[in-house]
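Pasting as-is:
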Amino acid sequence: MGYNIPMMIDYTELIGLSLKRIKNTKETFVRSADKKINWNSRLIGIKGARGSGKTTLLLQHLKNNHMDLIVSGKALFVSLDNIWFSKNSLLDLAESFSKNGGKILYLDEVHRYEDWPIYLKNIYDDYPELQVVFAGSSLLHILDARADLSRRAVMYNMQGLSFREFLNLKTGNDFGELSLEEILLEHTKHTLDICGKVRPFEYFDEYLKTGYYPFFMEGLDSYYMKLEETVNMILDVELPLLRKIEIAYVPKIKKLLAIIAESSPFMLNVSKLAGAMELNRTTLLSYLKSLTDAKLIASLFKDLKTVSSLQKPDKIFLENTNLMYLYQGKKVDEGNIRETFLLNQLSYNQTVEFSKTSDFFVNDTYTIECGGKSKTGEQIKTLENAFVAADGIEIGSGSKIPLWLFGFLY
């Protein structure tokens, strides 16, 4: 998409769509991410996996905080995959919006607009009166050599629902987040408080199966169909668009994901897997990196400080438990579900590494072993700062902590 000389254009159609989408947005549940974002920054970027709720977050924030500006035409929500942009430039929109008194411009699906980093850099530099908030794929790369946004944009990552958020949504409670230290060292106090208001196990299994992606609120009958569509959209559209992977090789990536899904989590044998996939080592590792960035798998390394872009992961998981049920159905292994849940919830705000002596080594300090309610700490008894995350218990004691409570980390 080439550059046009900015000029006054008619974007009435976009204003109408913006008003309609904002007015139709429900406010019954707002993600906790809304409170973590510094909404006063001039250029804000929100990236996350498709289906994680980025669009709803933008619409809700506009509705709850800028309805006066929306009505007066000074705040605008625009999806950059709109056909309007086939004949009009984003720079044209910014120019006309600014001249008409515009103040706040929210841009969704930014990755669908060619050369978007350059356009955002120009808007940031040329229209200081505009605040721009953009959202897009977890594959977004802002360190574009032609338009380095890293010094301009404040970036935030958005993950699927935590168990805490799911519990609040389902029960109407307002449970707050807990730090890792609060969970590890004060878990009895917090579990007593939570269990005095809800019974976590009434909701935990549902969360593991269908509670990670907010679109479960649209109905469970079509949940896995929508989830499969989401995965295919990432593989068929976002990877070729943002990782420059040729369409002809997408079936290879789908096969790779299917192999991982069938036996995840698993220890990676690069030579064996590359042979089965008929890929060389470098290509295989680049595909694994792309699937990790796309939030379809989670790669675990034994030393994050020395990880290179094409280093072999020590263990690979699906990114969340809902994906496990999508691919494995009733064949899902209970132990694997536990580990996948724990890694997913830990990974949002913690550094998690592969451990030879336990399941996870967290923040260079804590060893966490995952298991069922009969799991003991025998395996890790000689280690300092070692804990057991046990499924099937509402309240723990000592270093044995209910697994579900780690769902309160974000």
